[in-house]
UniProtKB/TrEMBL annotation:
The keyword Hydrolase applies. Residues 59-263 form the HD/PDEase domain. Keywords: Hydrolase. This is Deoxyguanosinetriphosphate triphosphohydrolase. Pfam families: HD, HD_assoc. PANTHER family: DEOXYGUANOSINETRIPHOSPHATE TRIPHOSPHOHYDROLASE, DEOXYNUCLEOSIDE TRIPHOSPHATE TRIPHOSPHOHYDROLASE. CDD domains: HDc (cd00077). NCBIfam families: dGTP_triPase, PRK01096.1. It comes from the Bacteria.
């Protein structure tokens, strides 16, 4: 793979349209960022759980604030890489005209990396999959192909993000968000379908597109010159910028979850300080911390220093491993390739997070509730949509689905996928409210 082909300003669905004038205030990649940040799917992230239940009097991160922070870290990673490339070769701008835009490409991809995640955090994904593996959805296996069934039993938010950005939903632009090819490619962490995913190789740990988007990604890969996996031609190696998007996400959620846990009194200040100090790399930091009486301010300083250390460490790995990344032989995340001392510190954070944060009572409660709500919605809408002869109840229920989610094709997989589009796009609050109303637990207000 080569940077000249990998960085393309062509837009999905508008390939022949003239590119913006270089004198314009915004580049094509900045336009991607702006389209995303003003979009409805992005705004809905403010009411989707990151880890902890949505905040009451104490602020914790939701999917939207997480995505904004990831985009900020991603832009820094891209900028460092560009500066190092320019420092190593003064002619880099002439060789690769869009290389100076990598920060904007990465930040746009970071904004959208969680667009496809359903309500209730990662338990929402598991709940949708569980409906088909262990719930009433098992009956639909005979109605779809083996590859389509693999999509359904392993619902994947990453693949759903690509669908949201490119699928021609009814009444919407037939080319989706019409983002640039490079931004779209930078989103797909696992460039394979559900049949070829869930393997040991890092780029196949999960999967990145549903059967409906197989041809979409093939076209993106062909345009950008992504290489195929020698072990399986149906699988691609990652677009190199995916590594920086992934690193930004890894850095943020590992560090920020500690900050939220401290705010909620799940972890003490001493516990957080012990975990973050080894990542801060600042000999004079302890003296600065002593000057701060407020514990939240201390945690914020530790968080900022730790993130800065990890940004530079990951950018260094990306630069040093660039040859292997471009030829598709680098097979791990950047965060797992930093110096041993930093890796050990990150592993200690993961261990504490699993024990004390991800298994905290409030986190488990929202996960359990998510299972019930998601399963309840699917068991109502999917049968109603698939029935050839609908009852009055079915008709009224389906009237609750906005027009954009009504399938254009009549096959079972497309109809099921349409219901999943509707349900996975819901915020936590809307999903709970709709569930309660259609189950007769509460009644709509006349206000």
């Amino acid at each position: 793979m080569n940077w000249k082909q990998l960085l393309s300003a062509k837009r999905w669905g508008y390939e022949s349209r003239a590119l913006s004038d270089p004198q314009d205030a915004r580049s094509e990649f900045q336009r991607d960022y702006d389209r995303l940040i003003f979009s409805s799917p992005f705004r809905r992230l403010q009411n989707k759980t990151q880890v902890f239940p949505l905040p009451g009097s104490v602020f914790v991160h939701n999917r939207l604030t997480h995505s904004l922070e990831v985009a900020s870290v991603g832009r820094s990673l891209g900028r460092i890489f560009y500066n190092e490339m320019r420092g190593a070769d003064g002619m880099v701008d002439e060789k690769f005209p869009y290389l100076q835009e990598v920060g904007n490409i990465i930040s746009a991809a970071c904004l959208s990396h969680d667009l496809g995640n359903p309500a209730f955090g990662h338990s929402g994904e598991a709940a949708i999959s569980n409906y088909f593996t262990d719930g009433a959805g098992q009956q639909y296996r005979k109605l779809v192909t083996a590859a389509e069934w693999a999509d359904l039993i392993h619902f994947e938010g990453n693949a759903n993000a690509l669908r949201i950005l490119t699928y021609p939903f009814a009444g919407k632009d037939e080319h989706g968000f019409a983002l640039t090819y490079s931004t779209l490619a930078a989103i797909v962490k696992y460039p394979c379908d559900s049949v070829d995913g869930h393997q040991a190789a890092h780029h196949r740990k999960k999967y990145g597109f549903f059967q409906t988007e197989r041809q979409v990604f093939d076209k993106i890969a062909g345009e950008l010159g992504l290489v195929s996996d020698p072990e399986n031609p149906a699988v691609y190696k990652r677009h190199p910028l995916v590594y920086l998007v992934e690193a930004a996400d890894d850095i943020c959620y590992n560090i920020i979850d500690l900050e939220d846990a401290h705010r909620l009194n799940i972890l003490s200040y001493d516990q957080v300080e012990k975990l973050l100090l080894p990542l801060c790399g600042d000999g004079g930091l302890e003296h600065r911390l002593e000057k701060l009486d407020d514990e939240d301010s201390r945690v914020s300083l530790l968080r900022a220093k730790a993130i800065n250390t990890l940004i530079h460490a990951c950018a260094s790995v990306f630069m040093n491993e660039q040859t292997r990344i471009l030829d598709g032989t680098f097979d791990r995340s950047l965060i797992d390739a930093v110096d041993r001392e930093l890796r050990d510190a990150m592993q200690r954070i993961r261990t504490v997070s699993v024990k004390h944060i991800y298994n905290a009572p409030t986190v488990v409660q929202i996960e359990v509730a998510g299972y019930k709500v998601m399963d309840g919605l699917l068991e109502e809408f999917i049968p109603a949509y698939l029935k050839p002869k609908k009852t009055k109840y079915d008709t009224k229920l389906l009237a609750l689905m906005p027009k954009q989610f009504h399938a254009k094709q009549d096959d079972s997989y497309t109809k099921i996928r349409s219901v999943l589009d509707f349900v996975s796009g819901m915020t936590d609050l809307y999903a709970v409210d709709l569930y309660r109303k259609i189950k007769g637990i509460s009644f709509p207000s006349l206000d």
